[in-house]
């Protein structure tokens, strides 16, 4: 007899590193999840989520999901494993950590993590163990540094206009983010403005992507030249009388100095730098100048250049010149991360953090693991690691160094993961992890204004354990479980966070599902003044003196070429520019069906993305005798990557686009795209310039590169 179970509906939040942090409704049938939907009653998610998360059952119930602890049984990276009990695996990790500490001191151990889950408990508890044992600190540099720094240099606080106000704009400028691919809810509100108000949508990017194709005006410029475009736009605004001089006098630091500086930053000057036509620059400036309700939605992508903080600051200056901040639907938004003010000190163990312990830059993991004294800050070598929530052997820069480092015989690595990632393949111990519907957590939205609860909805399969479980069990074995913050469950940590913020308890939020913390209109629009002590927007940033959410500790010193940062918004040529040996510039843009290295294991995403490809301007292809489907190799002093060519006229000559962070094994020579990206720190507060890479390009002769087929990728 067939028994039909009616699906029930669970509520959660998307855990992934995406500014949308969508509120979710999850179908549950007989203990398994089915289709995932956006919550219709959440005013930001508005019932819309990306297709990859809608298919999340593919990940949770994937046949190749890790279910047992594994211990390496052969040579490093060989792929030979034996199953172990949880107790045996954790005992081994603790034994190796204690032995490493005894030889080299506590800083030889480096817990390493990032944003595979954005849940505050499961993501950040690793820091409690770090601080308790005095292990090396981690300076986070993958994602936010340049964007947040550039924003705060101008606005003085990490908040902005309510992103739902995009629907009330007369023009929405989507700058440096492929929102259709990376944060679909931006398009929900922008297209509503178009439908209800006949608003214009402008998209600015380095290639003709899905967002540009939906825009009324698309500007495709050369990577790293956004500051030049912004300056030319402001030149026109002052020249043609669109600058709001009353607003400038009341709210900004030096409008006269800015206007004088911009005299030579003409559209003709910017056209030569950006590759845009003078006519397009003029048209964009006129649209912005004539449309007071212009909403600037500034993304992360255009900041991932060596001049990225300057680019963000320059773009942010435009609504200050027009006075757009005064109007509903006008102004700018990048992130609301500064509004939440959640006390996570108990989760992170801040009470026993030691300021004398060194910080290691997560982006420089390759240099660190290969003994670079500067990257190690002259401290001991890293000889033991616990890795949660990230896949550095695939997503971090300078991949050849990373692989070389992981293959060191004196390095012990434990990885806590869902699948056998490129990093897990190089580990000594691999632990199976739960997924977001299988544990409790709480999430805050960077691209919106809600705190959203993610309660456990289904039991995990037998085997996987939570991040918190791993941290707690290691704390017992390492002798620190008695310290404050340890011994608490997820719900106790969440209760403490919510109570401190006056938001009740886990049970209260479970009933409400999410809490809207958007600041009032006057605060969000900075009508009571900007976040600097003098309350004024800064056209003249204090590049080394301004506090920022991700400023490195003093012990790390100056980051990047800080002395070359400009006095006013400008184009500063700090980028890794093309040269005779490397005539192309490469941007590694997101793929629609992947999220960093997540979803690269699911059949639905692989089917939609097909294979790694290099988008190449047809004129460049003709000069190199390349056709659609040919194999090309791109490279620089860091390494080389082989992949198929796709002719594409939506990119400027001399610019290459490689979408998605595919597994290393998906590329024809087995090396991933981040083999080519650099880990050198970006001025002034660090960060990695993932979209700022110069390369050579050459055709690979037929039969010279091994072929990788889709079925091989699906099982990789």
TrEMBL record:
<keyword id="KW-0411">Iron-sulfur</keyword>
<dbReference type="GO" id="GO:0043546">
    <property type="term" value="F:molybdopterin cofactor binding"/>
</dbReference>
<dbReference type="GO" id="GO:0051536">
    <property type="term" value="F:iron-sulfur cluster binding"/>
</dbReference>
<dbReference type="InterPro" id="IPR006657">
    <property type="entry name" value="MoPterin_dinucl-bd_dom"/>
</dbReference>
<dbReference type="GO" id="GO:0016491">
    <property type="term" value="F:oxidoreductase activity"/>
</dbReference>
<dbReference type="InterPro" id="IPR037920">
    <property type="entry name" value="YoaE_C"/>
</dbReference>
<dbReference type="InterPro" id="IPR006656">
    <property type="entry name" value="Mopterin_OxRdtase"/>
</dbReference>
<dbReference type="InterPro" id="IPR006963">
    <property type="entry name" value="Mopterin_OxRdtase_4Fe-4S_dom"/>
</dbReference>
<keyword id="KW-0479">Metal-binding</keyword>
<dbReference type="GO" id="GO:0046872">
    <property type="term" value="F:metal ion binding"/>
</dbReference>
<dbReference type="Pfam" id="PF01568">
    <property type="entry name" value="Molydop_binding"/>
</dbReference>
<dbReference type="Pfam" id="PF04879">
    <property type="entry name" value="Molybdop_Fe4S4"/>
</dbReference>
<dbReference type="InterPro" id="IPR009010">
    <property type="entry name" value="Asp_de-COase-like_dom_sf"/>
</dbReference>
<comment type="similarity">
    <text>Belongs to the prokaryotic molybdopterin-containing oxidoreductase family.</text>
</comment>
<dbReference type="Pfam" id="PF00384">
    <property type="entry name" value="Molybdopterin"/>
</dbReference>
<feature type="domain" description="4Fe-4S Mo/W bis-MGD-type">
    <location>
        <begin position="7"/>
        <end position="64"/>
    </location>
</feature>
<protein>
    <submittedName>
        <fullName>Molybdopterin oxidoreductase family protein</fullName>
    </submittedName>
</protein>
<dbReference type="InterPro" id="IPR050612">
    <property type="entry name" value="Prok_Mopterin_Oxidored"/>
</dbReference>
<keyword id="KW-0408">Iron</keyword>
């Amino acid at each position: 007899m067939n028994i039909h179970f009616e699906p029930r509906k669970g509520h959660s939040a998307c855990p992934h590193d995406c500014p949308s942090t969508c509120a979710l409704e999850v179908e549950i049938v007989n203990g398994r999840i089915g289709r995932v939907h956006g919550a219709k009653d959440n005013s930001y998610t508005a019932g819309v989520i990306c297709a990859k998360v809608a298919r999340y059952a593919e990940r949770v119930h994937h046949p190749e999901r890790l279910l047992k602890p594994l211990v390496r049984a052969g040579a490093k990276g060989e792929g030979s494993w034996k199953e172990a009990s949880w107790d045996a695996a954790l005992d081994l990790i603790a034994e190796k950590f204690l032995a490493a500490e005894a030889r080299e001191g506590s800083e030889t151990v480096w817990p390493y993590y990032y944003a595979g889950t954005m849940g505050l408990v499961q993501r950040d508890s690793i820091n409690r163990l770090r601080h308790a044992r005095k292990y090396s600190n981690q300076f986070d540099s993958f994602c936010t540094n340049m964007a947040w720094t550039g924003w705060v240099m101008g606005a003085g606080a990490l908040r902005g206009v309510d992103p739902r106000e995009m629907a009330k704009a007369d023009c929405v400028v989507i700058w440096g983010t492929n929102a259709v691919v990376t944060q679909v809810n931006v398009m929900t509100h922008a297209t509503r403005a178009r439908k209800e108000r006949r608003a214009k949508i402008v998209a600015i990017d380095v290639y003709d992507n899905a967002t540009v194709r939906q825009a009324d005006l698309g500007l495709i410029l050369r990577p790293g030249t956004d500051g030049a475009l912004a300056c030319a736009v402001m030149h026109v605004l002052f020249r043609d009388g669109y600058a709001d001089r009353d607003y400038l006098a009341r709210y900004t630091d030096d409008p006269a100095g800015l206007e004088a500086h911009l005299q030579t930053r003409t559209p003709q000057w910017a056209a030569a730098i950006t590759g845009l036509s003078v006519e397009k620059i003029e048209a964009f400036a006129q649209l912005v100048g004539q449309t007071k309700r212009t909403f600037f939605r500034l993304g992360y992508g255009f900041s991932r250049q060596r001049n990225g903080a300057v680019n963000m600051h320059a773009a942010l200056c435009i609504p200050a010149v027009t006075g757009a901040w005064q109007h509903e639907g006008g102004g700018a938004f990048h992130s609301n991360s500064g509004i939440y003010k959640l006390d996570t000190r108990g989760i992170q163990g801040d009470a026993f953090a030691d300021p004398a312990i060194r910080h290691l830059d997560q982006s420089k993991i390759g240099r660190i693991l290969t003994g670079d004294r500067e990257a190690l800050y002259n401290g001991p070598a890293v000889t033991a690691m616990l890795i949660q929530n990230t896949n550095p052997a695939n997503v971090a820069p300078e991949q050849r160094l990373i692989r070389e480092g992981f293959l060191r015989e004196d390095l012990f690595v434990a990885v806590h993961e869902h699948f056998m990632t490129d990093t897990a393949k190089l580990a000594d111990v691999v632990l199976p992890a739960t997924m977001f519907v299988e544990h409790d957590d709480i999430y805050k939205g960077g691209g919106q204004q809600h705190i959203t609860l993610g309660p456990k909805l289904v039991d995990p399969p037998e085997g996987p354990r939570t991040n918190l479980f791993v941290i707690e069990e290691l704390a017992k074995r390492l002798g620190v479980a008695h310290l404050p913050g340890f011994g608490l469950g997820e719900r106790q940590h969440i209760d403490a966070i919510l109570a401190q913020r006056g938001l009740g308890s886990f049970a209260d939020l479970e009933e409400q599902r999410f809490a809207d913390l958007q600041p009032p209109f006057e605060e969000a629009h900075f009508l009571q003044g900007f976040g600097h002590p003098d309350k004024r927007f800064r056209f003249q940033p204090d590049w080394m003196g301004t506090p920022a959410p991700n400023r490195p500790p003093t012990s790390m010193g100056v980051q990047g070429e800080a002395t070359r940062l400009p006095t006013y918004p400008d184009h500063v040529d700090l980028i890794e520019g093309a040269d005779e040996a490397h005539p192309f510039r490469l941007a590694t843009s997101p793929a629609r069906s992947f999220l960093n290295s997540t979803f690269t294991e699911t059949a639905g995403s692989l089917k939609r993305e097909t294979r790694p490809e290099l988008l190449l301007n047809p004129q460049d292809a003709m000069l190199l005798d390349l056709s659609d489907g040919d194999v090309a190799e791109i490279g620089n002093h860091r390494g080389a990557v082989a992949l198929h060519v796709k002719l594409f006229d939506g990119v400027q000559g001399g610019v290459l686009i490689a979408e998605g962070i595919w597994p290393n094994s998906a590329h024809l020579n087995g090396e991933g795209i981040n083999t080519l990206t650099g880990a050198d720190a970006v001025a002034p507060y660090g960060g990695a310039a993932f979209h700022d890479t110069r390369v050579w390009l050459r055709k690979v002769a037929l039969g010279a590169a091994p072929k990788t087929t889709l079925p091989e990728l699906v099982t990789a």
